[in-house]
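Thread: quick sanity check before group meeting

JM: Hey all, I'm pulling together slides for Thursday and realized we never actually wrote out the predicted structure for the chain we discussed last week. Dropping the sequence here so it's in one place. If anyone has concerns about the input, flag it before I start.
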Amino acid sequence: MAPTIGTVRYYRDGDTVTFHVAGRGVMQQGLPLRRTTEALLNDGVRQVRMDLRDCIYMDSTFLGTLLTIRKMLEARSAGPLTLITPSVPCAKLIQEMGLWEYIPATDAPYDAAAPWVDLQLDNADAGSFRRNIAQAHEELAALPGPTGEQFKQVIRCMTEADKPPAK
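JM (edit): ok, ran it. Output follows.
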């Protein structure tokens, strides 16, 4: 049985958007998350918060997408991407990958009364989906140290897999 995909919801409050991830944060959510964030940044959002209190797992594409969002914020001289109350599994993964230096975290209460909107998984073409996966892994490969080295190997494998077969 295939693992279930978690849910991502968001709400905007002025120049801040808060995303809430429940369950598993996975590659199928990466492109819609990136596209939604881009649209909100184009509409004046300056701060992005990612509430991970109910997230039990993040795959590498989801993590790399978070780094992509961080980079988008930096390019616009906007506020940092901030993780809100990461769950124990997420905090452990972030610690193991050495990401605390790049994505700060803070505790904040969950606002159940906020006007949450479900992130819609789009039917992206296969090319856009694959490009988002590649970009997410390139962000991870750009990290210094062992984490970056591991993902450089992943990028090499992805590049090899994309080559047409030899004749």
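AS: nice. The chain has a mean pLDDT of 91. The chain is about 45% helix and 20% strand.
JM: adding both to the slides.
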